[in-house]
Amino acid sequence: MRILVTGGAGFIGSHLIDRLMEANHEVLCLDNFFTGRKHNVLKWFNHPHFEIIRHDVTEPIRLEVDQIYHLACPASPVHYQYNPVKTIKTNVLGTLYMLGLAKRIKARFLLASTSEVYGDPEVHPQTEAYRGNVNPIGIRSCYDEGKRVAETLAFDYHRQNHVDIRVARIFNTYGPRMLEQDGRVVSNFIVQALKGIPLTVYGSGQQTRSFCYVSDLVDGLIRLMNGNCLGPVNLGNPDEYTVLQLAQTIQTMVNPDAPIAYKPLPADDPQQRQPDITLAHTELDWQPTILLEEGLQRTIDDFRSRLSVL
Ligand code: NAD
Ligand code: UDP
């Protein structure tokens, strides 16, 4: 198949492209390189089945493909809050144009949505039926409300124009190729521990997250794209940890001498987050396989080689 991956030079997109290329598909990687890096897809540059397109999804584009994985959007709060209006445009206009493209060429379209659509959830763990507790005017709204509109667009294009959609609600994902300056908790703690500087725990560290290793997530995305379930489907690892537990685990694995420094909790930071993955299990026969310590070790090894620290 010919497959378009928007945001293909980013963290998840580049791992997805590796899997699609290894399965002998023709892959078009579309990216504006805001948080993506050519280096992430460098190994495919001279491959005849691979093409890279520098393009911003807030502008329309014409291409011919069979499937579209729509991932283009910064995912880390630091990056999506850098230019919030641009983040909204990316989520709304970007998704609109990509759905318009899918409609015209009759391609199947998968939206990379997020657990952030649940906001600061009052239901725990979160099932797909939960409608969320989202602040429409807060500093995370450009991202979480943007993704909620993106989901709305996907379902309206499906109902109105019969676009063949799939919607994944992705929970916190980590792994090799995360940016050093990404600002997300796993990359921050690993980089800080490797550098021997304090691990910055925001708030009391009692807020929880559930961390999915990237290869598991990519496997879920591919199953969703090629199955019959439209979604939305939660894709994440149900093993839940407090942020402080994560800090202590990384401390133990990398540098027991690295201290912990407590910093203020950012506004609207969700208190708890854990996916209910019953739907993914029954519809896609999917569940994560990589335990936290195993995934962390691979991520630590990657950062260690990129930062050239021992
Ligand atoms: P990332 O920032 O590494 O990747 C996003 C990619 O999109 C980058 O390559 C970036 O350059 C590109 N991009 C951003 N704006 C663009 C635009 N306007 N036009 C073209 N390209 C653009 O983030 P990621 O972690 O790989 O996330 C990929 C997708 O998965 C995002 O849609 C994100 O919302 C979603 N997601 C990620 C997580 C996670 O934990 N990583 C969780 C939930 C949802
Ligand atoms: N966090 C932290 N220290 C950091 C970065 C993040 O304590 O250096 C916390 C953050 O406040 C949040 C959790 O870790 O409670 C996950 O943050 P991240 O930005 O990785 O993802 P998200 O909040 O989008 O789930």
Which key features would you list for this structure?
alpha/beta; binds uridine-5'-diphosphate; binds nicotinamide-adenine-dinucleotide; Rossmann fold; two-stranded parallel ribbon; 7-stranded parallel beta sheet; 310 residues
Description:
- The chain is of the alpha/beta class.
- It has a domain at 2-175 and 212-236 and 274-288: Rossmann fold (3-Layer(aba) Sandwich), CATH 3.40.50.720.
- The protein contains nine helices and 13 strands.
- The strands form four sheets. It has a seven-stranded parallel β-sheet with strand order 3-2-1-4-5-6-11, with helices on both faces.
- Helix 4 links the parallel strand 5 (108-114) and strand 6.
- Helix 5 crosses helix 9 (292-307).
- The longest helix has 22 residues, at 84-105.
- The radius of gyration is 19 Å and the shape is globular.
- The termini are far apart.
- Bound molecules: nicotinamide-adenine-dinucleotide and uridine-5'-diphosphate.
- Uridine-5'-diphosphate (UDP) binds at residues 76-77, 172, 184-185, 188, 200-202, 207, 209, 243, 265-266, 269.
- The site of nicotinamide-adenine-dinucleotide has 27 residues, from helix 1, helix 3 and strand 5.
